[in-house]
Structures are given as C-alpha cells and as structure tokens.
Amino acid sequence: MDNRIYVIILVLLLLGGVGLSFSGLLNSQDDPPNAVIIDERDVVSIKQDQVVDINRADPLVPEPIVEPEPEPEPELGPRIIITLPFDPQNPPNDIMPMGETVHHEAKYGGHPGIDFQWNDPDEPPKFYSSAGGEIVELVQDGDDWRMVLFHTGYDDKYFTKYSLGSYNTELEVGDVVEKFAFLGMVPSPHPEDNMFGTHWEFGLACTEYRNGELVEECRFGFHGPRLCPLTYFDEDSLTLIETLWETAQYEDKDQFPLLCNGFYEGRDGELKTFSIRSDDFEDKERIPTKFTCDGTDISPHLAWFNVPLGTVELVLEMHDPDAPVSGGWTHWIVYNISPDITSIEIDSVPEGSKQARNSFGRAPYGGPCPPSGTHRYIFTLYALDTNLDSVSNLRDLHNKIDGHVLGEAKLTGLYSRR
C-alpha cells in the first residue's frame, strides 16, 4: 500500500480523536458527571433570614418578634366638653338659674335653661357657639332669632340653643361651625337702659332615634331632655360661671340656690325630688378607673338634693348586685351623716360620720373590681327618721333601717376590667 494512504488514515484518526475530546469538553461544561438537572419550576424561594453566611462564626438567627406593649386604656372623660357662650372679658352681671318656676313656669315644667343678663356693659355682648357643630334651626322668634346647634359627643348627640337679637348673616341652616364661632348679638329688651338679656340651653339632641330607640321627647322639637351643663363645661368656664353665680343678685336665690335646681328630665330629677349625682360620672355611665382597684381606689365625689323634711340621719351604701356571690358585694357603708351635709368630696367621708364593714372585711371604701363582665355599682342614699348607734354590715344596716326610711336616692355606675 502506498505510504501516502497510511498518512491520510493517520491524519483522519487524529482529527476524529480531537473532535471527540472537544465534544467531551463542551459536554463537561454543560452537565458535569453525576449532575442533577433542576427544573426552575421546582425551585423553592428562600427568605433572606434563612440564608446562612458561611463567613460568620454563627449562622444568622432571626430576632424574636417582640409584642408591642398594650396602650393604657384612656379614662373616659365628659361625654362632651362645652364652653360658655359669651366673651369671658365681657361677662354678664346677673344669671337666672335652671329650674326656676316662680316667674317662668313653662308648659313642660320649669325654666329649661340659663338666662344671662348684662346691665350697662361697656360694649354690646356677643353670643358664640359652645362647641363645634351643625346649625339645624335658625328661625325668627318674635323680635329675636332662635338658633339651635347639634353637637356630636363620644356617646350621643347634644344640642345648644341660643336666643339672638340679630344673627351672623354669613351663617345658615346646614353650616358646620367651630367651637366659639360668632353666632350673633345678644338681644337688648331695654335699649334705653343699656340692658341686654338672653336665654341659652344645653341637652340631648332630639333626632328620631337615639341609641337605637325611639325618643318620645322629639314631640317637643329639636331638643330632647335638657341637661345641667356644669359637669360639661371646661375648667375655665366652670370657674367663671360659679364665680358669677356667687355674686349674682338674683331675687329668688333663697328658693333656688343652685344653678341647676331640678327640672324637666334633667340629671337632678323632678323639682323637689330626693336625688344623688356625681361630678365624676353620670347615672348608668362608666366609673373612671381611678375610683377602682385598677387605679388609686379612692371614693368619688357625690352630692345630693332635696333631702326629705324630717330627716334625722343620712346613710350611704355602695353595692354590686352582679357579683358572683349570694347577696352581691358591698363596697362601702357610711352612716351617721348629718342631714345638713349635701356632698362628699373625693377620697373622704363627711365630718362626724362612721363607716361599717364592707365585703372586703374592712371599713373604708373598696372600689369596683369585677372578676369579669360589666357590673353595676349602685350608690343608695337613705333618709332616715332615726339615728343609728352602730352598723356592723349591710344586713345589719337593712334590719335597722326597716320602717325608718323617709326616702331613697340612687345613682348607678358601671365598670368592667377591659
């Protein structure tokens, strides 16, 4: 065979081997031996906090989740805060109180608001809104104008009513005004004497339904029950009106010594009705925390009115009828209270009175501390025709006052440990 043929065969064999090696090299880069091919649809995402840093001595461990501290439960303050409707730099000289019926006997039982009077002021007085709200009525009332505003409190709707000699013509029904917005001028029934006088009311607004129930008082117009405004005033307004009332020369002040003397369906009940209330909470309203075992556990303010004639002694009890024990739980008993005393201040007892043992096994006040749910705490004030020498507990009290009660006044507070 020709040597050239051998050379050609050898070259072809060498070229075939190089091709196989090159192909193997390419295959080795794509799929190395024993490699597992993974479909991207099978890839599971890995979160950053699951990645381990091999350069660290210890793996990354996610920090524990710290639960935020619960915010303290806010104290429930007044249902709404209002201000006096006039400029404190130009206050009235005289006031006619709520409930006065000697000269102003109204169709539905008494004077429903407060009258303010300016005698010879330096400048004509103006009226301002006591709270932010919506104008729902603006009508001419004789020679004057009547304006009614609705205000939204945290629990209900309220109204204020203003008697104006002239009104701010920039306002109309449906407008929403801010607190202390200028509403108009106070009427001047005797301009020759530079005397101004006006009427102002505060109470629950009368919409067709309130708290899901039909309100019967709506037959009277926009207002529902009038309310005594004293516990709704801001601190400056309350201080000012109390100062004004102390110096007011109201001729029937001996018959109506209080700014709120019992009227309509107001907080103090009907005129001459024995009643009890607190500056710290309304009837059937939540008791503030500071008067409970979750707070400073001190007793609240209490005041009473129209003590029955012939009362020799007053007795106060505070009882929880919802406690899960037979007969309920007694929180406070105070007896030997003089009928001349009309109130108890916060964290105190009347001078000369005594305290009996409560269900905690001690004599002083023990505040609400319900194990679950919302409980009622009923303050009952008894007017007695006799004196009590001693009282050991609630059962002993009830036995001793049987047949000697001239009248009872009740105030109910609510509390739950949320």
Describe the structure.
- The protein has 418 residues and is of the alpha+beta class.
- Helices cover 12% and strands 28% of the residues.
- The chain has 2 domains: 77-271, Glucose Permease (Domain IIA) (Distorted Sandwich); 274-418, PEBP-like (Phosphatidylethanolamine-binding Protein, Alpha-Beta Complex).
- The strands form 5 sheets. Strands 1, 2, 4, 5, 6, 8, 10 and 13 form an 8-stranded antiparallel beta sheet that branches. It has a 6-stranded mixed beta sheet with strand order 15-22-21-17-18-20, with no helix packed on it. A 3-stranded antiparallel beta sheet has the order 3-9-7, with no helix packed on it.
- A hairpin with a 2-residue loop joins strand 4 and strand 5.
- It is flat and about 150 Å long.
- The model is unreliable at 25-33, 35-58, 73-78 and 263-272 (pLDDT under 50).
Mind telling me which CATH architecture of the largest domain this is? Distorted Sandwich
Count of helices? 3
Determine the mean pLDDT.
Answer: 80
> pLDDT below 50 for ≥5 consecutive residues: which ranges?
25-33, 35-58, 73-78, 263-272
Task: Please give the alpha-carbon distance between the first and last residues.
Answer: 110 Å
Number of domains: 2
* CATH class placement of the largest domain: Mainly Beta
| Computed CA radius of gyration, to the nearest angstrom | 39 Å
Number of strands: 22
Structural class computed from helices and strand pairing: alpha+beta
Would you tell me which CATH topology of the largest domain applies? Glucose Permease (Domain IIA)
How is the biggest beta sheet arranged? 8 strands, antiparallel
What is the helix content?
A: 10-25%
Listing every helix as H and every strand as E from the N terminus to the C terminus, the arrangement reads HEEEEEEEEEEEEEHEEEEEEEEHE
